[in-house]
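Phosphatidate phosphatase APP1 catalytic domain-containing protein: structure, please.
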Amino acid sequence: MAVSDIVRKVETTFNKASVKYVTKRGWVPAVSGYTGYGSRESIRIFGRVLAVEPDSPAAVNPGAHPDDLGEQRGWRQFITVQLGDFPFTVRIGDKEVHAHTDDNGYIDIAIDNPGLEPGWHTATISIAGAPDADAEVMIVDSSQEVGIISDIDDTILVTWLPRALVAAWNSWIKRTNTRMPVDGMAEFFQRLRTSYPKAPVFYLSTGAWNTYRTLNKFTRQHGFPRGPMLLTDWGPTETGLFRSGMEHKKVQLRNLIIDYPHMTWILVGDDGQHDPLIFSEVVKEHPTQIKMVAVRTLTPREHVLSHGTVAPLAEVANNARATVPFIHGPNGHELIRELDQL
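Here you go.
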């Protein structure tokens, strides 16, 4: 038996024991909705079901969420008891879908669009014994020609990933309301939206779904455009102890390109992880659907804090640079200057 199989079995056993323990203590189920997206053809809806204390905000207030922890230590986001294989119902428009959560309590379903027009809509997620939760859904107009896909960590939010100890301090120890934006990146997005006013924005990150509320609040507070967040689960998989962040980004990028075949994309990332390499591969595979690549370049000090060397982990390949416009700079202000020179 592989190590990853052992860890998965331990995780499953531990969670089952945790569910039994908190149930005996009177904990109750609570559902949380995340931001989904869709088109005139189909909709994708996200959420999660957790066990919570009966006097917690999520248990007594229909407008609260089980993982909305306000301005507390970051580690509080990661201490959860998920309810796997838990029945739920999603209602949106005239559609009603019944399904079960996955092993980690997540909701991720695709349904046919029930005639919703482009814009923002609200789905309702219901479970037995708990208040309903709202899940926002962004429907993109089929006539929209340009979309934006942005990384989060060290692109718009100072994180210093994947340097484990630094990232752990920023994500687990610091208070969630002290996270700092990358200089000028909100202005860069505003500049992009000036050129493409209706361009939908998708945030793609290797970060855990546990941080969704904190990240959503962060983007609102610092002037970043509203948009769905495509996060991941850090737990073990059938092939490794941790999910591959790089593979997660590749899959989600390809999904968006497939879901919106009529659109061309502006890709925004940083060179502290593998964004340039991922972007290069996407450009090679879909050269006609990538409009521009923008990379925030970390300083040598940031590279050391991020991954231990002064050099980037990867660079955009020369052939990718030749295929689509490529801009780079240490902050959003420099990216705006380069954008204006195109």
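Notes: The chain has two domains: 3-139, 146-341.
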